[in-house]
Amino acid sequence: MKAFTGASRQLSTALAALVLASCASYGPDPQAELKRADAAMGGTNLKSLRYAATGTGGTFGQAFVPGQGWPKLNITQFSRVLDYETGAMKEDSARSRSEPTGGGAVPLMGQGEQRISAHVRGEYAWNMVGPAPQAAPVQLDQRIHDLWTTPHGVIKAAMKNNPTARSEGGKTAVSFTQPGRFKATAWIGADGMVERVDSIHPHPVSGDTEVVTTYSGYRDYAGVKFPTRIVQTWGGSMIYDLNVSEVQPNAPTGIEVPALVSSFAERATSEKVADGVWFLAGGSHNSVLIEMADHSILVESPLYDGRAQAVLAEAKRIAPNKPIRYVVNSHHHYDHAGGLRAAAAEGITIVSSEMAKPFYDRTFAVPNSINPDALQKSGRRANVMGVASMRDIGNAARPVQVYYIENSVHAQGFNMVWLPKERLLIEADAYTPLAPGAAPPATPNANNVNLYENIQRLKLDVDRILPLHGRVVPLAELRTTIGMR
């Protein structure tokens, strides 16, 4: 009887395995589904594509209040050239604000448009600033993601990356991972059109970040199907709601990596501005190192690990026996917070506004698993200390006072650092000095005016301003810029 029971169990196990195998054989074949979609959308011989659109959107990572939605935009021009053969993309756009508050380089409400020319090819990302290329390594992952999550791009990427497939709700969901870049699931309708792409993308601040892109209203353009509406959210907040007006299959591309971009390397330069106070420049975003008796304080760790690590290395070179105890974050906007994970990975305490602390506590607990950053690799948890209005993190010999910039339209929970003995003010985005000799604007910038009002409110006897964009200037330059003599 026991032998019979054992044989029965073996037979049952074998039958269960056979049933599972049989079920798997009736599931959708991912490569077959991708080929079906590729043919239905006319992508089989599609090497490149250009489309143009207008619509609305949001400025990713530039929320007015930490953790809230991205500032809303009007997008009056938008075009992308997609080169699937070389892995390249060019995006040109013009954007203006549709709400008065929040960050980003878009001019203040009613004061014009921001024009962007953004590029990627292979392992290089850059922007065109006038005729000059400017490396943008912090944008590389995002632009690769944007290229390969387009309707035809996601099919081509999935074919190369061991896809899996399942049927759900009358659609086929094809999932894959582009190693080190993103994970995606393309939802393909019965007609073969890509209706939605759910993806997860690595980011220097928000870690594994959810992106949802929906495509609808497909039309035929010389045998290629492309949507007339594109809606995309990042981290649950709107980035694009675009109405496509023009599509050109197999458009000419000619996207080549400039020599200035391929040879780019992050570097941090140091300038002594007072005894024990160093201005760390060499890129688009500056930092400041303040030496104390037995440790150092760093103001700002921006952009991404690459920039942060160059700054940290320079700080260690300057003060090798004074470990960095604190890094002060000016505000929660992603370009200014992108290097905080790298600092936290070294056990440095992050000093933020009390308003931003819950946002950072929550965000820095999110893993960066697709492309592990320094914090992910370290296994540490970020330690964030909040400042409510004002806090001195220095000592009697060298006070280092962190103050809120109040009533700014740029951000809430907006910090500046005051060194009273040296009469130095450190700030970001509230004021970026004009080029030497440039005429003041006819209408003073509201952020510049607001900074001066805060200086007056706090009765700070400022000698020089150390801006986290631009050059060190005397207070007199700010006064001139806002029309005061």
TrEMBL record:
PROSITE patterns: PROKAR_LIPOPROTEIN. Residues 89-98 have a biased composition (Basic and acidic residues). This is MBL fold metallo-hydrolase. Residues 1-26 form the signal peptide. Keywords: Signal. Residues 284-469 form the Metallo-beta-lactamase domain. It holds the Pfam family Lactamase_B. The keyword GTP-binding does not apply. PANTHER family: BETA LACTAMASE, METALLO-BETA-LACTAMASE DOMAIN-CONTAINING. Residues 89-109 are annotated as: Disordered. Coiled coil: none annotated.
